[in-house]
Amino acid sequence: MAGTGKAHLRDDQNVLLRVEDLVVEFPIGRTGLKVNAVSGISFDVLKGETLGIVGESGCGKSTTGRAIMQLPSPTSGSIMFDGTELTTLSGEAMREARTKIQMIFQDPISSLNPRRNVRDIVLEPLSIWKRGTTAEQLAAVDKILEHVGIDPQRAAESKPHQFSGGQCQRISIARSLVLNPQMIICDEPVSALDVSVQAQVVNLLEDLKKQFELTLVFIAHDLAVVKNISDRIAVMYLGKICEVSSSDDLYRNPAHPYTDVLLSSIPVPDPTVAVKKVVVDGEPPSPVSPPAGCRFNPRCPNASDRCRSEEPTLREIEPDHFVACHHPLTGGEAPVSVHFK
Amino acid sequence: MTQTDLVRSELESLVETIDVKTHFKTPRGIARAVDGVSIQIRRGQSLGVVGESGSGKTVLSRSIMGLLPRNGVIREGSVRYRGQEIGNCSDKEMQSIWGREMAMIFQDPMTSLNPVMKVGKQISESLRKNLGMSANEALAVAEKLLHDVRIPEPARRLNQYPHELSGGMRQRVMIAIAMACGPNMLFADEPTTALDVTVQAQILELLSEQKRDRNMSLLLVTHNLGVVAGYTDEIAVMYGGKVVEKAPTKTLFANTKMPYTEALLSSIPRLDQPSHSRLTTIPGRPPDLVNPPKGCRFAPRCAYVRDLCLNEEPELEQADSPDHTYRCFYPVGSPEYLERRVELTRKGELVASEGSN
Questions:
Q1: Overall number of domains in chain A
Q2: What is the pLDDT of residues B153-206, one digit of tens each?
Q3: In angstroms, how far is CA A160 from the centroid of its own chain?
Q4: Using 50, 70 and 90 to split pLDDT, how confident is the model at B224?
Q5: d(CA A221, CA A191)
Q6: Does A245 touch chain B if contact means CB atoms closer than 8 Å?
Q7: What burial class does residue B90 get, using C-beta atoms within 10 Å of its C-beta: 0-12 exposed, 13-18 middle, 19+ buried?
Q8: Which of A158, A180, A202 is the last residue of a domain?
Q9: Domain range for B281
Q10: Three-state helix/strand/coil letters over B6-39
Q11: Which residues form the ABC transporter domain (chain B) (predicted)?
């Protein structure tokens, strides 16, 4: 089977996370059918890098983020984090490994326990892992709360509902930072927020990344936000990676027709720019029975017979810019491979 | 009303609000959600109402449509539809207006549809009630409506429940319901916020197409200035229950007067900026509507604030072009604004907005 390819994986000492052939499938009852949420994707993240993962709902981007955390464990594939293979770890060892990888979720209000005060919420990871004395823990919590711009005094007295959405997201960030993780997986951390607040949270993540030397995986559907925060972007469609590139290059030179669609769908805040005609119709097909060949072919304006039968592999079209497409917008046609099933 | 009167009134305005106030009684005191808003919407025109959460934009659209509870709400001012006062109508009187004259699309298509009623029945409900159609007639029209909003296989969809549809399709069903009785005025309250960007573009395209084909007026409520830029004729920016700037869309973007509008615009991450460029933020939070700040409501968060702003509330000023109004003592481009801007740039507090201007 033509896979999604691994041409884009880097051979670097600084690779912190390396995911190979990740497959996540969810069975549907006893029907024998399954949801192909993620179908064989590979990517790597260097230390200190921000990898953005973009795509529409149902493309498997959140599932990928959760699979890294083994929530749940992937169906198959390998996840190497800092030299450790996470998929084979025992429950207890995995629990320990998760202290180094933390997660921030989309809805800041429902991801915080409404009945506890905010300081306790941020303190909990420390008390679970018995890091330091109680006084040291409290000091650490107050310090982290100040870093994210929440008044520790107020946090000690208030419950999450007394804070706004943006502040709740700051609290979630504080909770994820308190154990000093190496990597944070942000799953749509700003999509529920107002634009003005969204900018605050994005700036905060950038600052914290520098201060705490973090590595980020930033999952979102809004390419404009992802582009701003990421060094490298992977575009996902229906469980596959379509394109991987540095973020500036991806915007300047989108090669996959799907990336182009995503980019042109973003409304431009300028009335003198004519609204681009929507080039694709409809929505992604069901991941239960994904189309053969390239999964984007039913919606793709450039689809050919080859796209309907042969699945494209990721290949390099210019330095550090990879695309899985037979007829990309730049970089020339894919060489026809002698390939029999 | 004679024919010419009718034509004139339609040229003037379809919906007009004069100094509308909607205040809520809360345990902490009176929340001034909408505090003296006057807007006009002409036939076939689209108005974007933009603001952060809590700016009163949703309450404004509901006030116009009369969709607020009777209890605990204080309403003042006048709402006119085709020149007739509807601000004080009872729910019963409004029923002749809802659906046939005005309709609304809500933000969350999942919770706005009835989960235990088939899509076809939900669409045909208002057709039967308002237009007196038979069940079969109504279903036939419903199928056509689903086809109009580009739902594939409309006949099959009539017999499906909302949970069987994707988010984008549910929003299309909402639009079909709103369009069913051919309203003249459509309110869309954050119609695309819950949707993917690709679907968002499709829905906005669909709305503006329907508006054009039916010569309908549209009030588009959103927090994203990018969304309204391409799809509205005029924009009203709301802050703390008041309209702080109103202008034709092109003028608003080309000749922004209010620092708040400018701040909203520059906080949108733009694709043409290099990655990792610092986003301009608006510090702080929207004002408390129970105890709004004295003076200009935006003053505590404004980078260009001066003493006068903190003490006196600015009146609606007229800009150079006739339809452009704003509430600010030191608007963008004024000498005081420019002076402060030079200071801020020197201190390095203006980074990203430099690139976008």
A1: 2
A2: 899 999 999 999 888 889 889 999 998 998 999 999 988 887 788 888 888 888
A3: 26
A4: confident
A5: 8
A6: no
A7: exposed
A8: A180
A9: 253-356
A10: HHHHHHHCCEEEEEEEEEEEECCEEEEEEEEEEE
A11: 15-265
Q: Is B279 on the interface with A (CB under 8 A)?
A: yes
Total domains in the fold of chain B: 1
A155 and A283 part of one domain? no
Which secondary structure element, helix H or strand E, spans residue B223, and what is its range? Answer: none
Phi, psi of A330 (to 5 degrees): -135, 160
Q: What percent of chain B has pLDDT over 90?
A: 59
Q: Among A3-12, A97-106, A154-163, B234-243, name the one with the lowest average pLDDT.
A: A3-12
B345 occurs within a structural domain = yes
Q: Predicted confidence band at B355 (pLDDT cuts at 50, 70, 90)?
A: very low
pLDDT at B8: 54
Sheet holding B46-50, edge to edge: B102-105, B185-189, B217-222, B46-50, B234-239, B242-248, B325-326, B317-318
pLDDT digits (tens, 9 = 90+) for A280-314: 777 788 888 899 999 999 999 889 999 999 999 99
CB of B47 within 8 Å of a chain A CB? The answer is: no
A227–B267: do the CB atoms touch at under 8 Å? Answer: no
Query: In terms of domains, do A218 and A285 share one?
Result: yes
**Considering CB atoms only, which of B250, B264, B275 is closest to A230?**
B275
CA distances from B307 to A252, B258, B294, B349 (A): 45, 17, 11, 21
| CA A185 to each of CA A24, A173, A224: distance values in angstroms, whole numbers, following the listed order | 18, 11, 18
A252 & A310 share domain: yes
Looking at residue A51, its amino acid is L
> Sheet containing A232-237: which strands, arranged edge to edge?
A101-104, A183-187, A215-220, A50-54, A232-237, A240-246, A321-323, A315-318
In a domain, B295, yes or no: yes
Q: Of the candidates A157, A180, A203, which is a domain's last residue?
A: A180
Q: What angle do CA A321, A326, A332 make, to 5 degrees?
A: 60
User: Which chain B residues touch A56 with a CB distance below 8 Å?
Assistant: 196-199
Q: Which of residues 258-297 of A touch B (CB under 8 A)?
A: 261-275, 277-278, 280-283
Instruction: Please tell me the predicted confidence (pLDDT) of residue B283.
Output: 85
d(CA B125, CA B135): 9
Is 50 exceeded by the pLDDT of residue B69?
yes
Same domain, A165 and A300: no
Identify whether residues A243 and A331 lie together within a single domain. yes
Whether residue A56 is found in the same domain as residue A186: yes
Whether residue A223 and residue B271 make contact (CB cut-off 8 A), yes or no, is: yes
The domain in which residue A152 lies consists of 109-180
User: Does B52 contact A at CB distance below 8 Å?
Assistant: yes
User: Phi and psi of B329, rounded to 5°?
Assistant: -80, -35
A62 in contact with B, Cβ within 8 Å: no
Nearest-Å Rg of the Cα atoms of chain B is 22
Q: Are residues A47 and A174 in the same domain?
A: no
Q: Answer yes or no: is B346 within a domain.
A: yes
